[in-house]
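Hey everyone, long-time lurker, first post.

I ran two proteins through the pipeline my lab uses and got sequence/structure pairs for each. Pasting them in order. The first:
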Amino acid sequence: MINASKSEKTLVLFVDHTNFLKGLREDVIVRPRNAPSPVERSAPSAAEASTSSTVLVAEKETMQNIQSDDSDSDDFEFYDSDFDAEDGDDDIFADNVDKSVNDNNDKELCDEHEDEDALEDDDLNLREEDRKHLKKKFTAFNPEIDMDNPSFKRGMKFSGVDELRKALTTYSIRNRVKIKKLKNDKRRIQAVCAPGCPWMLKASNDKRRTGGFVITAYEGTHKCEGSFPVKSITSKILTEKFMHEFRDNQKLDLKSFAAKVLREYKMCPERWKLSKARKDALLQIHGDEEGQFRLLMDYGQELRRSNPGSKFFLTTNSVNDPQSPDYKEHLATVYWSYDACKRGFLAGCRPFICIDGCHIKTKYKGVLLTAVGIDPNDCIYPVAFGLAEVECTSSWEWFLTNLRDDLNISNTSPWTIMSDKQKGLINAVQKVFPDAEHRFCVRHIIQNFQRAGHRGETLKNDIWAIARSTSVPKWHRSMEKLKVDSETAYAWIEELAPNTWVKAFFSDFPKCDMLLNNHSEVFNSYILEAREMPFLSMLETIFYKLLQRNETKEREAKKWSGRICPKIKKKLDKFIEWSNECSVSPAADHNKKGHEKYLESIAEQIQNNIVGEDDEIDIPSIVEHVIPHTPNPSMDPTQKQDSMVYRMQVEDGEHVPINRLLGPLPENAFVASARDNIPHSRVRVTTASSRGNLRGGRGRGRTISPREQATSNAAAHQEEEERLAEEEELMSSQI
């Protein structure tokens, strides 16, 4: 090229793509002397070239001839043309130079343009290193950020075809357009909008370069009218979108859920979609309910291994399956308790247990039986739990028996059981806790009272006045007031034993005068959320709730000042304030007020065998043979090899660490500290043991004749002797 420029004034290289030179005049082409005619050669073929093009070039030999001729002679033959130097080139400059070109390299503002196409064919055949570098040219779709409001462009890479399909659905919902997929398989997707709309998207699997799904063509302009693609909002999309909402509030109702969907998408699907989305979300949160029942045995084994001293055992029933000739084992009952709760209850709580049952609100239903104690601050203290199919005498007897053996209770006389008058519960308590005091919830008594037809605020207040009576005279006055207000109501209340619901007749040993079973009701409300979960999820939720509650109560207790708990101190302060209105009266004033007369009337009633219901007739022979509270080793269930407590103790001992002390649970600290004040065995004859209680000439009562009293005493004495004989035979056989 340099040598040719020395001999020729102008050298022009034409690349003819349109066969322009075929129609060009010969004199326009400048060629050296003795130069051969131009040679037409076809350009290299390409895969994308639509038509062949020719290139006018001079062969290599021609260039060599030019170099040789240049060395021999400097005479050249010039053709006359318009390109003479003498004529000047100002007119050519003015006609052909673009003045708008910036020759000074000044920075100018220009429109933004996309990077070079990442899908050029030159990048198809690359080495492995170059292919890894090429992946950086593609824009990756981030589902965590971009899926909420996706936008597309050519060269965007997706992890798979499912992600692209989901993005197209979300794009259709957000932009209110109907996207139709003409081709939709694992290798390619072609989507278009409504007829007449230029919007289109093509994507294919590009495993060779990117290893994902890549958009190969895209046109993002819409010229169609908007629509409401409600059908595109499926229950699966709603579940994934609002999963965090259901985790935060599992009680989210359909009305509130529909309002959230409407605010998010500006349209709301059908109600059945909302219901299915909520059901699927809760299923993902809690797991399969049927599958959780299969894990109960493993859960119980792991609980006993990781938390020694805790109890977990279940029973099953063989049920005939109509779809198969074989019998299948179905879950019947489950009992579980935690070692820390039991030891804390025995160490710091009073011998007072509130029992109640609540329904499980799941597909398979059932009744959850709970035993709740009272801590020193008069707050709830859960002890044990049970699951039964129905609430009946056998289920309560099973639960109370396990509770008694689990707490290692051998003498039931110091204990008090609080419950409502549930079906079968009274008989179960009398059988399992024969010597315990059984109280009934006054609120449930009032509900039964009103169902019997005794309604009205006046009668209700009379019942509460009777229950809150702290002395026998006050109880008499309240009963008389009820009799004046309603004879039928008085007759209905008279059939209830006062020692089950009136303060004046409560035992003072547990140091608790509760009239309501509020502690059980509070705990049932406390685990209301767990009762709506599958069974295994319910167990885990209750466990972590108790764990968190115990930790919170411990932190609160460290902030207390003084030796008295806050709620107890508040009661004492209230009583101190009441005592400010009291005055001290000497003995003479007592005599004037009739105190001595009251004592004389009591002595007269005793002489005439007229005693009040609060006065119990003790048989001396029975009192002499009362079994002491110290448990007999032969009657201790922890020493009997055939007892459930012994078997559980052996099983737990296999998993207990070496530094842990083996053995049964300790005795209740409250009972041990007040051993001398433990009430006697309740196997005795009392005026409150049968209907027609004797109330000293009050109401429908009657007096007991000496013959009847002697007969009843002899019968009770004989029963006690028979019981003691059976116990002696049992002890001798075991020894």
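...and the second, right after it:
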Amino acid sequence: MGGAIARLVDPTERTSGSSKQNLATSRSRPSRAAMAPHLARAPRPTPASSSSAAAAAELLASASRLPARRFLQLHAHLLRTGLLALSPGTAGSAFLSLAAASLPSPRALAVLHHHLTPASLPDTFRCNAILGALSDPHDALRFLRRMRALGRRGNAFSLAILLKPCRTLAHARQLHANVVAEGHLRDALLATSLMRCYAACGEGEAARNLFYEMPVRDTVAWNVLISCYMRNRRTKDALKLFQEMRGGENEVEPDDVTCILLLQACTSLGALDFGEQVWEYAKEHGYAGELKVRNSLIAMYSRCGCVEKAYQVFCDTPRKSVVTWSAMISGLAANGFGKDAISAFEEMIRSDVAPDAQTFTGVLSACSHSGLVDEGFRFLDMMRYGYRLMPNVCHYGCIVDLMGRAGLLEEAYELVTKEMKVPPDATIWRTLLGACRVHGKVDLGERVISHLIELKAQQAGDYVLLLNTYAAVGDWTKVAEVRKLMKEKGIQTTPGCTTVELNGEVHEFIADDDAHPRKVEIYEKLNEINMHLRIAGYVPNVSSELHDLDSEGKGSALAYHSEKLAIAFALLVTPQHRPIRLAKNLRVCVDCHNFTKVFSGIYNRLVIVRDRTRFHHFQGGQCSCNDYW
């Protein structure tokens, strides 16, 4: 293209001083503000033949994109020779397309506005290409208004292009109004693009309303709604859509993307039974061989505590990608099988699959959860020097957690403040704060809180960790001071919530819950469990109750935490041979952890609890976390 452009220029013009001066002037046009007046003062065109105009039109039509400086050279030549004026239709529309593809969005818009006339107005196809080339959605919207003012209305695809980079709710609503006014709501592509736009802006309800207004809802639209629900933390509603898709008058078949999204939703909720229903559907409809479906299934089984099933799917997957290996390694790590995760990592290396950043997060997490300090630092060095990967905050967070587990809290603090190559985020400080709670390091915990305050990232859970740290050393005066501070700042703690799945339905419990339809049976069963556990030696850990109560009051308050209610319900509804699976939105408190350990031994049940940070496998009076979490 560069040589062709050079041949367009007459040899005498290329050597003339005035041409060089004009060319230099065109190169130095830096700002959008200066562009319009410069174009208005363009030099008077020199005569050009019709054959030159035809050649220019042909070359412009064949070009896709030029470097910005090269385009400006071409622009100056076309202005001097008047080639655009000779062929405003073909050459003009091709030139406008090339401008949009070659220049930054604001500068391209200035050129478009200057040259856009009824004669040079491109057809709808080229106008859509220009809309897609303009990177700034506001500039694209301005061009749409301009082309419509000149008589080119565009089509549904024109609006769909504008929705792709949509970043603001006002932009989405404006385009929604255009869609309705122009009767494009029946266009499934356009409607689903608008749904995605609403979802990206956090307007899940608007996306849902639009979905049910659509006269025709295809599988893609259902998938977008499922994704929207998950983005807005309405995971249970996302699962309900699976049944709604397949039943009634909808007659829409879920596809492989639907299966992936639903498996991710089951991963989030710990909904094992529902996840297995989705897997059965995938097998029946020919999606079982899709690698992404299998990767999602491995992650789902791992996050539901079914490591054996996850490993079976992993072994049966013929062509394993780095994502497959990473999902298995992370699953083993999260469930406390640190040495197995390291073995899997080493097998991956032997299989000539290069690990990525996510793989190293998994193997470092395995070292952290298993207390393998030396191995953790070995893998960190391997990452940096063997694979030339720069550790991020997630990798350093695993190392901080590993050092905290080993009691190296001051060394971990030094690592964060002096040695890390990336700025620490709130998660790293919370990891260190959790270690302070376990080891009773009050002074360091106070320093960590000060860093969270500096980041303006402190949350209610951070203050609860600090409260637990003070309570662990019996400093109730400090507990009262922190509680007063939280009250003054209006900091509200997140209510603990524990879920249990039964036959594909998720049951939720909060502390002192009285909303469940079987509440009478649940409380009777929990009182029975408490009686048996106390006989076996269980004593409530009153340091887990941070309210200003006497010992008896603290014990009563602890008796009906959400985990205990969930365990009582699970004991009522699950057969003896099945594990009890719970998922909690917060870190398990010390008392509930002790309660579950004793329960697993007395009742001879495997209890698998997924809290905010890791898995706990309780069996025979022991926990896989070795009392560090």
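Reply from user beta_strand_b:
Welcome! Quick read of the second one: The longest strand covers residues 497-502. Strands lie at 497-502, 505-510, 580-584, 607-610, 615-619, 622-623.
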